[in-house]
Specification:
Elements (H helix, E strand, L loop, with lengths): L1 E6 L5 H13 L6 E3 L5 E3 L5 E7 L2 E7 L3 E7 L6 H4 L4 H6 L3 H18 L3 H4 L3 E4 L2 E4 L2 E2 L4 E6 L2 E7 L4 E5 L2
């Protein structure tokens, strides 16, 4: 099971991660490392996590498997520059603001799952009919999506269930 913690209070990302890992996972003074592309992780730990934020909301997903996690506020409008970078198949599915952000967060959660840079993979990834494709091939990963607090969320990883907790 994946656990998601979020706050709408202003927080520093690393401090938020450390507070959650200390309070809920009994990891005192966790040392957060980062991959070459900036994905945070703990050395010698079975805990995986990924952080996301959008318009004042910060959220952390914590589990036992690799995770990609992204959210976007639904209060915005689809961005034409980003919309133009979706594939024709995706554009056919993007009919509402919610559709736009579901596609956006699915793609970004997958790229974060891989620990890659958004700019390097954005045009190589497609989210179509609820599946992620990389360079035209089914990536074979699971995408779990939900909405809360006026945000669209996507989780990429081997998860089918999650719990969510506001830590304000």
């Amino acid at each position: 099971m994946l656990e998601i913690f979020y706050t709408k209070k202003p927080v520093l990302s690393e401090a938020f991660i450390k507070n959650i890992l200390t309070a809920y996972y009994n990891i005192p003074n966790p040392t957060i490392c980062k991959t070459i592309h900036g994905k945070p992780y703990l050395i010698k730990s079975k805990i995986c996590f990924n952080l996301t934020h959008s318009k004042g909301l910060t959220a952390l997903a914590v589990g036992k498997h690799q995770i990609g996690f992204d959210c976007e506020s639904l209060s915005g409008k689809p961005r034409p520059a980003v919309l133009s970078k979706f594939t024709e198949r995706e554009k056919g599915e993007i009919l509402t603001v919610q559709d736009f952000y579901r596609h956006w967060t699915a793609r970004e959660s997958y790229i974060k799952y891989l620990g890659e840079q958004l700019a390097a993979l954005w045009r190589k990834v497609e989210f179509y009919r609820g599946r992620i494709y990389l360079r035209g091939e089914d990536a074979g990963v699971h995408i779990l999506q939900f909405e809360t607090e006026n945000c669209a969320f996507s989780i990429c990883g081997d998860y089918t269930k999650f719990s969510i907790k506001c830590v304000d």
